[in-house]
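Chain A, query sequence.
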Amino acid sequence: MLYQRATVVEINDRTISLEVERQSTCGQCQLKKGCGTGLLAEHVGKRFSRIVIDKTTEVTPSQQVNLAIPEQSLLQGAALMYLLPLLSMLLFAVVARWLGFNSIAEIILGLLGLSCGFTVVRKFIESRKVGFKAKLVEEKE
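Chain A, predicted structure.
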């Protein structure tokens, strides 16, 4: 399990909205003063993501909670998000070449395949009822 601190933003009957600070490994090394990526991340500032989870425990707005995300579902989601669109782009471009289309048509069909891949990923993730779900965990004292 991966753990992350989050702040409760909104509470409904069945769900809780949490705000989680996006963390990057950039800026953690010794080169952070001279690295362009580290300097850019410093100037952009903190960024937050909003996550909605099922309500399993009583919380109050602005409360700090621990969020647990299963490693397996995170890895599966990342693989799905990166690989499926790329593979569909390559497949569409290869089919275009195999059918004898010109280079412009190959590029257009490749981009269409990329778009279709992202759409399939979005629909797949929206249709799943379990899997990528995070949950609140008790703090260890």
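The radius of gyration is 20 Å. The mean pLDDT is 79.
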